[in-house]
Every structure is written in C-alpha cells, then in structure tokens.
Amino acid sequence: MSLKLKIRLSIALMLVLLLGLGGYTFFSLQRLEGGARGIQRANFRSVEYGEQMLRALEALQDQPTAQPPLQQLRRALTREAANITEPGELELVDTLTQQLADYQRLVDDRAPATAQVTQLHRLRAATHRMMQLNARSFNRQTDQAAAAARQARRTVLALLLLSTAVGLSLVVRLPRAVLRPLRRLRADVEDVASPGPATQVSIAKNDEVGAVALALNRAFGYMQDQRSVTRAALATERSRLESLIEHLDEGLLLLDPDRTVLLANPVARELLGREAAALVGRRAEDLSQETELLNALFRPLLAQEGAQAGTTPAPVTLTFARPDGETAYYQLTLNHIVSRNRETGRTEFVGHILSLRNVSDFKKLDEVKSNYLATISHELKTPLASIKLSLMLLQDARTEPEERQRLADGIGDETQRLLGMVGQLLAVSRLDAGAEIQFDVQPITLAQVVNYAIDTVRPQVDDKELQLRLELPASLPAARADVEKTTWVLINLLANAIRYSPRGADLCVRAHQAAPQELQISVQDCGPGIALEYHERIFQRFSEVPNASGHKGGSGLGLSISREFIEAQGGRLWVESEPAQGSHFCFTLPVAG
To answer: What range(s) does the Histidine kinase domain occupy (predicted)?
Structure first.
C-alpha cells in the first residue's frame, strides 16, 4: 500500500468518525427536540386546557348562571377535544361534553342550585381525571425522553472515545508508517555512501519510498560507473605519471610540507645508493645526518627557514663517483610546490621537489673549452714567438740574403697559420652569437674547387710523401654552392687526412653524381680510423677523440664549422670509418639548375 493511500485512508477514517459522531449527535438532539415538542403539544396543552376549565368551574360555582365562565369552559373543552392524544382521553372528553350539556340544560331550565352545584362537581371531577391522565402520560414521556437522552449520551461518549482512540492511533502509527521507511532509506543511503560492501538501497515495498530507492539505485549505479571510470582514469594517469617519473633521466625526490620523503625515483636511488624503503617515509633531518652526500643533498632545504613562504634557492652542483671511476656532476634544484584550493580560493603549500640534473656533459664541455682556450693561447703564442725571432734576425745586418728570404717565407707561413686560427675563432663566435653567415651561392664546377684545395695543401702532401689520387669525371654537372665556403671545407678535410695519414700512404679525392639532383665529394685516407661511437662526436665543437697513434688533434672546430657550412648550402657531411681501416669523409651538394 502506498503512503499516499495510507494517508488518504487515515484522513477518510477520521472524517467518517467525525461525521458519524456529529450526525448521531445531531439526530439525537433533533429526536429529543421532537419528543419535547410532542409532549408539549399532546399533554402539556391538555393540562393547560384542564386548568382553564377548572378556573371556569370555580367561577361558575360562585355564579352558576354567569355566561363568560360558561363560554370559557366550553371553549377550553373544545380545544381539548381537538388535542386528544392519549388512550381513554376521548371517553373523558365525551363525558365532559355530556356533562357540560346537562349543566347547560339545568341552567336553561333554572333547576335548583343544588342540582347545578352537583353537576359542577361532576365536571370538576371529570376535568381532574382528564388532567391526571395527561399528567401521567407527560411523566411517562418525560421519563422516556430522559432515557433516550441518557442512551444518546452514552452512544456519543462511546463514539467520542472510539474517535479519540482511532485519532491517537493514527497520530502514533501514521508518522511511524511514513517515517520508518524514510529512516530505513536514510540508513541504506548512508551505508552505500560510506566505505563498505553495500552498493544498492534495499527496496522493501512498492510505494513512494520504494520509487525513491529505485531512483537512488539508478543514481548510485550511474555514480558507480562514473566512479569506476574516474578510478580507471586516475589509475591510468597515476601509472603514466609514475612511469614518467620512473623513466626520468633526472633524479627526483618528492617531500611533503613536514620534509618527509614521499617518493624517490630510480635515478635518485641509484645516485644515493639507497633502496626506496630506506628513503621513503623518513624525514630530511634524519637522513641528512647519515652521510655527507645526503647532508649536501638536503642542506639547501634544511638551511631555509619558513620554506612555505621562502624563495627558491640557487642551484647547487653535487659530484657523484660512478662505478667506472669517472666523476659525474649533477645540478641540485629545490622547488616548492604550491596548489590553489578551489573551495577556499587560496594558494596552499603542499611540499618540496629536489631534482638532480646530470650536467656532466656541460661540465666536460666547459673543461674542454677551457683546455681549448689554453691550447689556442699556446698555439697563438708559438707562431708569434717565431715571427718575433725571425724579425729580430731580419733586422740583424749580418744575416745573409738567402737566410733573410727563408726567414721571410717562415714569417709568411706562420702568419697564414695565425690567420687560419683567427678565422676559425671568428666563424665560431659568429655562429654562437646567432649571426647569419652570408653565402654567395651560385653554379660552380667541382674541378675548380678540388684543384684549388689540392694546390693549397700540395706542400704538405709533398712533405709527407703522400700518394695523392684524384678521381674527377669530366662529365660532372655544375653544383650550386658557395665556392669560398666549399673550398674551405675541402681544404679542412684534406688537412685532417694529411695530419693523420702515415708517411707515403695513399690519399684519394673523389667526386661523382650520387643522385639526379646531388653531387658527392669525398676524401679517403689511410689513417688510424675512427670508432663508430665517435662518428657524430667529432662534429661537435671542442670535441676530442681518443687517439692511440699519438697524433695531436686540432682545435676541435674545423669539422663542426664544415658541417654547418655544408648544411647551410643544402648538403650533408658525414664520415665512414673503422679503427685501423682509415677514414672516408663525404659531403654532398645540390646540382645547379
């Protein structure tokens, strides 16, 4: 049964009880009122008429022949004759009528006064009997009306008690019938909302509460689906984030606002030589007291008071010893994590991040650059000292003319060497500054470039007695390039080949069309060769390749500048080499037109 039907039936029952009580009371009162009116009409008036007749008889007793009392007696008797209601009353009225007629004859016949008085006594006696008859009937009907009133009072009282009992029962049971399923529904909803196995609200009855429970189950089902989707998305994002953190090439430690380690990725654990269990869950103050490395790691964090409002300290460089004996350099950066609370609209401090970035390559590059500057300073100093000595000898008048010419040639060679080194430095400085080097790209013949480069390095080739071989087909099309920059690249490749080639070895310069729109030039030597892992490194600035042959390397800039020159013209520069097999440097240029 639905709650609405229960409420309607309860209100209808109370209404029926109220209507029954009111209707019974109304009809009982109406019946009592009708009985009172009937008594008044049937008996009270007859007694009143009898009293009028007695007063008329008293008046006739004093004046037997007086007409007004006689008329009053006759009028009262007439009214009584019209109001006969009781058994035997009709006979008494007939007797009174006969006696009144007999008295009227006595009066008319002027009978003796004694006869008239005797007749009046007879009328009085009959009148008293008539009044006594109506009085007894009045008392009897009054007793009946009183009994009916008592019965009506008892019935009304019973109905009132029944209505009260029913009303109290409804007052107690109706709220219970309405609230009990609501309380049960609330308890079920709390069970579903709280952590536990409950996932649905129980449906006890097919009423309004059951309909609400069914709707809640549908809502909970949708929420469960959404929660599952959200959990899956969170799990995916968490897995993705953990995977990202786990595979970072930087060391990462996450700490809460109390400086307790929450997370340490594999790189950080490997650098610190600790397992995750030895780091996670421990405070930075405790860990910093264990080793000097941990003390240096947490020093920027512990040295900063009021970390929530503090500024980010400057990065610190830490050194770590690798298992292979090399020293690794890591840059330590401390960042404070803040998050905006959407509910309060305020920014809250939630923790710290310590990151360790590997700067070993930059450190080594800086060292190489420093070494290069020292080397280039030495190389600049040597030719300058030679030039200065040659100038001093030239100023000496005792120097022979042949010796003066030799000294002048030496000064020229040293000057050209200085110009080459300064040119490389200027090119590097322009490239580092982002300045665009101007290229005069136009159709050129490779024979012109190759012959000029060979003529330039010919003295060095002859000095080492190298067997130079040139493979340059006459049918090669023109290339689109800058003749000056391309010649500089080829000279640099030939100079490297001459430097690393043994005396009397073969040296080959080739040019051919590698593709319909591409020409390839290569320089092949018989030097010590280059291992595969260094094929790209040699094109980096200030790079040094381990060399077991004892040859002294150059500045570490030539190949880097050469690659940038070739790529700027739309070509490529690479090396093909193996240890002890010589080196084969190649570069390409686009075909003109």
So the answer is: 375-593
Collect all residues with Cβ–Cβ distance below 8 Å to 508 and sequence separation of at least 6.
468, 469, 470, 471, 523, 524
Q: How does pLDDT run across 513-545, given as a tens digit for each residue?
A: 999 999 999 999 999 999 999 999 898 876 766
Distances (CA, A) of 176 to 87, 171, 207, 372: 63, 9, 15, 95
Determine the pLDDT at residue 307.
Answer: 43
Query: What are the two backbone dihedrals, phi and then psi, of residue 151, each rounded to the nearest 5 degrees?
Result: -65, -40
**What ranges in 303-400 are assigned the alpha helix state H?**
360-395
3-state secondary structure 447-471: HHHHHHHHHHHHHHHHHCCCEEEEE
Cα R_g (the chain), whole angstroms: 68
Residues 6+ apart with CB under 8 A from 224: 199
Name which residue leads in pLDDT, 380 or 28: 28
Residue 191's nearest CA partner among 211, 208, 213, 210 is 213
What is the distance between the alpha carbons of residues 135 and 145, in angstroms, rounded to a whole number?
15
The number of residues making up the chain comes to: 593
**DSSP secondary structure code for residue 537 in this structure:** G
Euclidean distance between CA atoms 281 and 106, whole angstroms: 143
Confidence of residue 574 (pLDDT cuts 50, 70, 90): very high
Q: Is 322 left (phi over 0), alpha (psi -120 to 50) or beta?
A: beta
Among 2-6, 333-337, 418-422, top mean pLDDT goes to 333-337
For residue 502, the model assigns a pLDDT of 93
121-128 own/partner pairs: CB under 8 Å, 24+ apart: 123/53, 123/57, 123/73, 123/96, 123/99, 124/54, 124/57, 126/92, 126/95, 126/96, 126/99, 127/50, 127/53, 127/54, 127/57, 127/96, 128/50, 128/54
- pLDDT for 551: 47
Phi/psi at 345 (5° precision): 75, 15
Query: Between the CA of residue 206 and those of 189, 199, 209, what are the distances in Å?
Result: 18, 20, 8
Q: What number is the average pLDDT over the span 279-284?
A: 88
Of the pLDDT bands very low, low, confident and very high (cuts 50, 70, 90), residue 587 is very high
Tell me which residue of 511, 546, 506 sits closest to 530, measured CA to CA.
Answer: 546
Evaluate if residue 550 carries a pLDDT over 50: no
Closest CA to 58 of 143, 131, 117: 117
Per the CB < 8 A criterion, the answer to whether 469 and 509 are in contact is yes
If we measure between CA atoms, which residue out of 40, 50, 135, 134 comes closest to residue 86? Answer: 134
Q: Which sign, positive or negative, has the C-alpha torsion 475, 476, 482, 488?
A: negative
Mean pLDDT of the residues in the chain: 81
Percent of the chain with pLDDT over 90: 17
The per-residue b/e assignment along 517-542, b for 16 or more CB within 10 angstroms, e otherwise, is: eebbbbbbbbbbbbeeebeeebbbbb
Is a pLDDT exceeding 70 seen at residue 435? no
DSSP 178: H
Which of 352, 349, 256, 343 minimizes the C-alpha distance to 301?
Answer: 352
The contacts of residue 97 (CB under 8 Å, 6+ apart) are: 77, 81
* pTM across the whole model: 0.40
Q: Is the pLDDT of residue 549 over 60?
A: no
Helix (H, G, I), strand (E, B) or coil at 88: coil
